[in-house]
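Internal tracking record. Fields below are filled automatically when a chain is submitted to the structure queue. Please do not edit lines marked as system-generated. If the sequence contains nonstandard residues, flag them in the REMARKS field before resubmitting.
Queue: standard
Priority: normal
Entity type: single polypeptide chain
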Amino acid sequence: MGMALLALAVVAAGCGSDDAPSSSEEPSDAPVAVIAQAPPEVSGKPDINANGAPDGSADDKDWPGTMTARYEDATSPEAIIGRDILKNDHLLEDLANGMTDSMKLPYDIPLIGKQCGSANAYWSPGDQSITICYEDAADALDIYTKAGDADPRTSAINSEIATFYHESGHMVIDLYDLPVTGKEEDVADQLAAYVLLVPGPDGKIDPASVRAVKDFAREFKGYSDQKGGTIDDGQLSDVHSLDLARMYNLECWVYGADPAGNADVVKNGSLPQDRADGCEDEYTRLSSAWDALLGPYLK
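SYSTEM-GENERATED OUTPUT FOLLOWS
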């Protein structure tokens, strides 16, 4: 339930208007949130006991961490575009607050927006932080603009929401020493789909969350198109699955979570019928696995 509320709150907030106060739209010398707690000095993360809590803790109150957000400076044209996309919608703050409200965190985890020099996003095990590169948002905007989206900016925000949850998949695997079988990058994609497709209190999946998963899938189609459809040894040996494979996985899971509501991905030819036939069972197994893995760590 906690992750469902997290997804609903963040997607709704992330698609807001540009009518925020002018002070929030300008770069600031001060970070949005000050990181009050550092990870433990020895290992960078706590030992987790058999009850799913830090060693020596009695209950949920002994998880003191919050996720904090900050935006670093941007100087390149591409980074400035990406920073505006993230900051003008207060996206990192909303994502951080939602994670704090939903997950038991052993210490403060920074969520950082920064100029990286290339489109990227990553969980840093050493720093125990998530970084969303401004160039990633700018690249997404370019992809959806070229795709002819009526509102490419909203599509870009959706893809960054899903990107955050993908990186959160790496985070929870690391923080809680969760078991992973297969490629961790695929598992992180699963976490993004799981969070966004969990039904809300009314038993229904939020349409905005569904749109975020679909836009995330379309982004990988855009990356494949950028590469001209060619596949080389570097792509085959990469820790990430091929772009189109990731697209089909996400579309399968969004269809499997609600075959009637998301039949469009099959009808429009995006998801092949032979894959779609097994997607409901595939998503059920995915959802059940994440329920078990994350259960001890949800507030």
